[in-house]
Amino acid sequence: VLACDMIVASEKAKLAENFINIGLVPDGGGTYFLPERIGYHRAAEIFFTGKILTAPEALNMGLYNRVVPADEVLNTALDLARELAQKPPLAIAAGKAILNRETVPRLKAFLEDEAGNQRIMVGTQDAREGMTAFLEKRKPNFIGK
């Protein structure tokens, strides 16, 4: 979701980067996109606490463009797509290229860091405990190993 150009979300939507709750680090580009979108301190709080954002919270942070009732998401997104389709495609493409100029090389480095750290974390006792606790629907007991 965080890699999208524009996001129309249901008022019931939730957004989470809660890998921490099972002893892992964020992946899938989360460590790049979330701080890029909302700043380091907010991203750190979400990463390190496992906080789940409601749709209004995500909208207020600038993660969503629009929040609408669930039964209006598709039509709202289609209306936005139709609006964009009326704009000059070359100018949109050029604008997108400018906005994303630094993204690819930086994102690649973040993805490599995430993958390397995830490989380490998966082998830890904390990750095994976190995943087991999740499956058993109980609170994990992390020991730092």
UniProtKB/TrEMBL annotation:
Gene3D superfamilies: 2-enoyl-CoA Hydratase, Chain A, domain 1, Lyase 2-enoyl-coa Hydratase, Chain A, domain 2. Pfam families: ECH_1. InterPro entries: ClpP/crotonase-like_dom_sf, Enoyl-CoA_hydra/iso, Enoyl-CoA_hydra_C. PANTHER family: EG:BACN32G11.4 PROTEIN, ENOYL-COA HYDRATASE. This is Enoyl-CoA hydratase. It comes from marine sediment metagenome.
